[in-house]
Specification:
The complex is a heterodimer of chains A (225) and B (424). By secondary structure, chain A is an alpha/beta fold. Chain A contains seven helices and ten strands. Chain B has a six-stranded mixed β-barrel with strand order 2-3-8-5-7-6. A two-stranded antiparallel sheet of chain B has the order 11-12. Classes of the chains: A alpha/beta (225), B alpha+beta (424).
Chain lengths: 225, 424
């Protein structure tokens, strides 16, 4: 469960200020698949950064699983992310010096899980995204779609309470995008809370709930029937 | 956070740091890794070799002084005396020393050697006459104490029957001392050359039996002759000698032996008893201190160069991977785990360099320098490296690598996570 109250993010560039998020409030119940849409510059990525604790808002509060995240220190936020959140980056962001399996093992090792167990769990996560035959490949040996699937496996391997995805299909062809979205739908069916930012309306429609932003404000909110 | 939780967190950070570092090192360009290790090896070489050679040079001077001149203890007449009074009594006393191994009694006098053939050609020509200290020895005694026979570079050592032969130090011969100084030396002298030996008003003709090269200027400027010939030449009937060099059993205490002689010799006021170290000219011990300091200065400069190298390597590596460092933090990897991975990498570079250069130094350079000492005008220079010195320098370089790896990693990891990911 996420509760956001009066969330405001202002960027200051020289003498100019830009309000990227303007007193936004909403909540996301556990198990929901939420899509955040909007045009470029609407504030959707900024919102995702605040929700996933990668950035700090200027005002407002974010409660995740009954924890007021505004009081957490930087190290505590890293630790909180490790235990509760999974993040899928637009450009895959998998570590180039690690194989697919090693990339996926990272959050588990950081949680103190034994390397052998971490390996097995990573293999299971990669099986879920259909990459069981690419375990020992380096990122440079994988296609964009495969890299994004590694990124998903890494984000879900430690069973996060909330999965964030920042335009996960932006750099992919249609076929790869559909594979990724099917993975999300499957995860959602298993009860995974997902918050996905996308600028493609047809992908947003697959989500259970859709919030549209413009100039840092929520301009519409729809629920899938 | 309690201590147990902190410890567990540190353990996790080390596990992840090691995991990252090992894979980073494994998948780095091998040539880049080899180049960094090579630079670290050169740094360690510089830290060890320059100091080692300079100190080895001073050690060489000290060692040759002890081996070929003073031995463990040297007895000389006190300043008011010309020779050692009651030399025979002293001889017996020394031989009663528990640690006694051998001694050599030496008669010394200032002498001139003249190459008559040269004088006849041209009066002003250099090398026709040379002054030196003539030393009358018992060849067997001297060889037992100093091993002088092993330092003959041309010809042979004296035997008990060589009544008209001399050994001549290379320092008195032009051909063996080129470029050393402008002092006059004999030219064209070879084994078998007939020379005139002049002591005061007396002179005899002698032949050169061998040429000595000990690497010690005091000995290499001496002329050795049988003691019987010398005593006859200077008309010495007293058997009082001018120097007694004493060799003790290995591991004996020189100071104890010195004390024994001083305490038991009734004419102790007439003699000066010195251990090998006390015999050393102050210039040599000062030189050792200076060389040691110079070696340390070179070592510190190398250390700074090594530290900067590691700093740059890690900093460039971390800066170019700033985005990935941001991503790691984004997926929950702690900053400390990332810093540990960089520290492990820099320690790997430093330790590999240290091990590689230590291997080369211990197995190749030190034995090579032993076989082929550096030839200096005053002595021979070997590599002076002790295990303690090697370990200490290795530790200093390791600590430097630790700090040089940690600082750039810390600079990059403490940047804002989102800024790092977005490249802002």
């Amino acid at each position: 469960m996420i509760k956001i109250n009066n969330l405001t993010k202002i960027f200051t560039i020289g003498d100019h200020t830009l309000t990227a998020l303007n007193k936004i409030s909403f909540s996301v119940p556990s198990g929901q698949f939420l899509a955040i849409t909007g045009m470029s510059g609407s504030g959707k990525s900024t919102l995702l950064y605040q929700l996933s604790l990668l950035d700090r808002p200027n005002q407002g509060t974010i409660w995740i699983e009954n924890v007021d995240t505004s009081v957490l220190t930087s190290e505590e936020r890293i630790s909180f992310r490790l235990r509760n959140l999974g993040y899928i980056f637009q450009d895959y962001a998998i570590l180039p010096m690690l194989t697919a399996k090693e990339n996926v093992m990272m959050p588990l090792l950081m949680q103190g899980i034994d390397e052998n167990i971490a390996q097995k769990k990573a293999e299971e996560a990669l099986l879920k995204v259909g990459l069981q035959d690419r375990l020992d490949n380096l990122p440079s040996q994988l296609s964009g779609g495969q890299q994004q699937r590694v990124s998903i496996a890494r984000a879900i391997v430690h069973n996060p309470k909330i999965l964030f995805a920042d335009e996960p299909t932006a750099n992919l062809d249609t076929e790869s995008s559909e594979i990724i979205l099917n993975i999300f739908l499957n995860l959602h069916k298993q009860g995974q809370t997902i918050i996905m930012v996308t600028h493609e309306p047809e992908y947003a429609k697959l989500a259970e709930r859709n919030i549209e932003l413009r100039d840092g404000l929520i301009i519409s909110e729809t629920f899938k029937k | 956070m309690n201590i147990r939780a902190s410890f567990n967190k540190l353990k996790k950070d080390i596990t992840v740091g090691k995991f990252l570092a090992v894979r980073e090192l494994k998948r780095n360009n091998p040539w880049s890794t080899a180049l960094i290790i090579f630079v670290m090896s050169l740094t360690f070489f510089n830290m060890v070799l320059m100091g080692g050679i300079l100190i080895g040079l001073a050690d060489g001077m000290m060692s040759s002084f002890k081996t070929y001149y003073s031995s463990d203890i040297l007895v000389k007449p006190a300043s008011q005396n010309v020779s050692i009074s009651q030399s025979s009594m002293l001889d017996s006393l020394i031989k009663s020393l528990p640690s006694y191994k051998a001694l050599s009694k030496r008669y010394t006098v200032a002498a001139i050697l003249e190459n008559e053939n040269k004088v006849k050609i041209k009066d002003t020509e250099i090398g026709q006459r040379v002054s030196g200290t003539l030393v009358g020895i018992n060849p067997n005694e001297e060889d037992a104490v100093t091993g002088l026979s092993t330092q003959i570079i041309v010809g042979e050592f004296l035997s008990d029957y060589d009544t008209e032969a001399i050994l001549i130090g290379k320092g008195l011969l032009v051909e063996y001392s080129k470029g050393s100084s402008t002092e006059s030396r004999l030219e064209g002298v070879v084994v078998g050359s007939r020379l005139k030996l002049i002591i005061g008003k007396n002179n005899i003709e002698v032949s050169v039996k061998g040429i000595i090269d000990t690497g010690n200027t005091t000995v290499d400027n001496r002329i050795f002759i049988l003691e019987s010939t010398m005593r006859a030449l200077i008309n010495n009937q007293s058997l009082n000698v001018n120097e007694i060099a004493i060799l003790l059993n290995q591991g004996s205490n020189n100071l104890e032996a010195k004390g024994y002689i001083v305490d038991n010799f009734p004419y102790k006021a007439d003699i000066v008893v010195e251990t090998a170290n006390e015999t050393l000219p102050k210039a040599i011990s000062d030189m050792k201190k200076t060389f040691s300091m110079l070696g340390n200065i070179v070592g510190v400069i190398s250390l700074i160069v090594g530290a900067i190298t590691i700093f740059i390597v890690i900093f460039v590596n971390a800066i170019t991977r700033r985005k990935y460092i941001g991503i790691m933090k984004g997926i929950g990897i702690s900053a400390r785990a990332i810093e540990i991975s960089y520290v492990i990498q820099s320690l790997f570079y430093a330790l590999s360099g240290i091990l590689f250069s230590s291997f080369i130094i211990i197995w190749f350079l030190a034995p090579w320098f032993d076989l082929h000492p550096l030839k200096f005008p005053v002595t021979e220079g070997k590599l002076s490296i002790t295990a303690d010195g090697l370990i200490l320098r290795g530790l200093i370089l390791t600590v430097t690598a630790f700090i040089s790896g940690y600082i750039p990693a810390r600079i990059v990891t403490k940047q804002n996570t989102l800024d790092a990911i977005l490249g802002r």
